[in-house]
Amino acid sequence: MIEILISFAIATSILSLSPGPDNIFVLTQSIVNGTKYGLATVFGLMTGCLVHTTLVAFGISAIIKENESLFFVIKLIGASYLMFLAYKVFKSDAKIVLSNDGVKKESTLALFKKGFIMNVLNPKVALFFLAFFPQFLFSNTISTVIQFYTLGGIFILVSFLVFGMIAVLAGSISNYLKEHAKIGMYLKWGQIIVFVFIAIMILL
Predict the structure, then answer these.
(1) How far apart are CA 121 and CA 168, in angstroms?
(2) Could you give the CA distance from residue 135 to residue 132 in angstroms, rounded to a whole number?
(3) Helices 144-168 and 2-17: crossing angle, nearest 10°?
(4) Spatial separation of the C-alpha atoms in residues 158 and 18, rounded to whole Å
(5) Cα distances (angstroms) measured from residue 148 to each of 8, 18, 26, 73, 177
(6) DSSP secondary-structure letter at 131?
(7) CB-CB neighbours of 23 under 10 Å
(8) How far from chain centre, in Å, is Cα 34?
(9) How many Cβ atoms from other residues are within 10 Å of residue 157's Cβ?
(10) Contact 137, 50 (CB under 8 A)
(11) Which pTM does this prediction carry?
(12) What is the pLDDT of residues 126-174, one digit of tens each?
């Protein structure tokens, strides 16, 4: 059980560090407006993750109770989706582009709301949670709802620590990315390896 949760935390860390719209948005807001504004964005994003965790927890738990074969089909679909994500990352440009164009100063509450809405209304996040979380269920005796909330809690905590670090160290991170162009390539392949590894775990 502990090994599964540690694996989940490591996978979440790699995915949180990999360049994406969320952490790039946090980084640019922090650079333009300051750390406090970047952290407000992070809080909004993580609150959105709690909504997705709730939807997955109760939706998938109901499916498991009704039909385990259907749950197995969902796991296979999840594996396929993760492989698709790996392919998309493989085809994407490893270069990390930081643009402050159009980034205007907003209140912390406005940025919290923006982060929340960005997350909750993003169907890709919902699909990712649906594909990612069921692969890390860690007990045959603990309620699946509790297991999903445990995974959601770990995901939110790890992502918050990574995104919070990005907000606090925005200036230094920005300068580092400019000076070390190859970091994008390392993060890209780290993301690919995580997606493919989890997909293979499911298929085997």
Answers:
(1) 26
(2) 6
(3) 40
(4) 13
(5) 12, 23, 26, 18, 35
(6) H
(7) 22
(8) 23
(9) 13
(10) no
(11) 0.85
(12) 888 888 898 888 998 999 999 999 999 999 999 999 999 999 988 788 7
